[in-house]
Design a protein that fits this description.
42% helix; Rossmann fold; amino acid binding; 316 residues; alpha/beta; globular; Ornithine carbamoyltransferase; Asp/Orn_carbamoylTrfase_sf; Asp/Orn_carbamoylTrfase; transferase
């Protein structure tokens, strides 16, 4: 089996990664995807516990089956255990799981839970989603961009222009950080009042200044400019139940819908979405189902990207 990338202790947040680590993880994900048999015993004898405070389709399946493909064992702990820190302290949770497992995957409501697990566990912790970051998703998306714009093209990711349209959330935060660290030009178009938190944007701006990439934040959809790929996510967060507020939100976001006309105007060749999609809201059904859509390729790449993280953290 080939050597693994720069050593990681945990995989918690994009802004804790170096450019070399991200590049190595992307390369390893593609290598595992193309030669899965070479890694079929990479996690032999290893057990990974998966904590899920929130419902999941892609994250649950991609981790579970990905761990199996690496020869490891996955144990799912669902919502029946309640929110971390309520039934028992996060520190106790982390220390107990460290007695049995070789790594912890956690999909949680709050980043503080991820940080608590990492602080008190004696085994690696992987952030499978929290309120601030979604690093596994972003890594899979950059694997997808690498496949589309770099492999066989004699270029690199720094030539790619990526735009995110919609609500500033954990997905856009992770894309923003990863793009800034890698040196990828990134445009973030959010309705007023739905931008990323200022401290996060300023941190990403510092990364972009260092890497030489261009980071743009605007609420004016007419200034989108030329792009290679456009990314969007749901406007209505999971569990949003106030119908009157939802209607007002949809009206406010309507000009930011990603559709064929936006793709034509920007010159973008692919559209991306982390799913689940609310069709005819943030993206039209016609575009989501079109040949320009790489949403299912990116969904598959979740497994390969996460496997690259697991191999890097656990394989000897």
């Amino acid at each position: 089996m080939s050597s693994v990338p720069t050593k990681l202790e945990n995989f918690l947040a994009d802004d804790q990664l170096t450019k070399t680590q991200i590049i190595d993880l992307i390369a390893l994900a593609i290598k595992i995807k193309n030669h899965p048999g070479d890694y079929s015993k990479a996690l032999a004898g290893k057990s990974v516990v998966m904590i899920f405070e929130k419902p999941s389709l892609r994250t649950h399946v991609s981790f579970d089956m990905g761990i199996n493909k690496l020869g490891g064992h996955a144990l799912y702990l669902g919502q029946q255990n309640g929110k971390l820190g309520e039934r028992e302290r996060v520190s106790d949770y982390a220390k107990n799981l460290s007695c049995y497992a070789d790594a912890i995957v956690a999909r949680v409501f709050e980043n503080s839970a991820i940080e608590g697990l990492a602080e008190h566990a004696s085994i690696p912790v992987i952030n499978a989603l929290c309120d601030i970051y979604h690093p596994c998703q972003a890594l899979a998306d950059f694997v997808t961009l690498q496949e589309h714009f770099v492999i066989g093209k004699g270029t690199d990711l720094t030539k790619v222009k990526l735009a995110y349209i919609g609500d500033g959330n954990n997905v856009s935060n992770s894309l923003m950080f990863m793009a800034a660290i890698l040196g990828v030009d990134f445009t973030l178009v959010c309705p007023a009042g739905h931008e990323p938190k200022n401290d996060l944007f300023e941190k990403a701006k510092a990364f972009a200044d260092k890497s030489g990439s261009k980071l743009v934040l605007t609420s004016n959809i007419d200034t989108l400019g030329q792009q290679d790929a456009i990314y969007t996510d749901t406007w209505v967060s999971m569990g949003f139940e106030d119908a009157s507020k939802k209607a007002a939100l949809l009206e406010k976001f309507a000009p930011y819908q990603v559709n064929h006309q936006m793709m034509k105007n920007s010159g973008a060749s692919i559209v991306m979405h982390c799913q689940p999609a609310h069709l005819e809201e943030e993206i039209t059904t016609a575009l989501f189902d079109s040949e320009m859509s790489v949403v299912f390729q990116a969904a598959e790449n979740r497994m390969w990207a996460q496997n690259a993280v697991l191999v890097t953290l656990l394989a000897k």
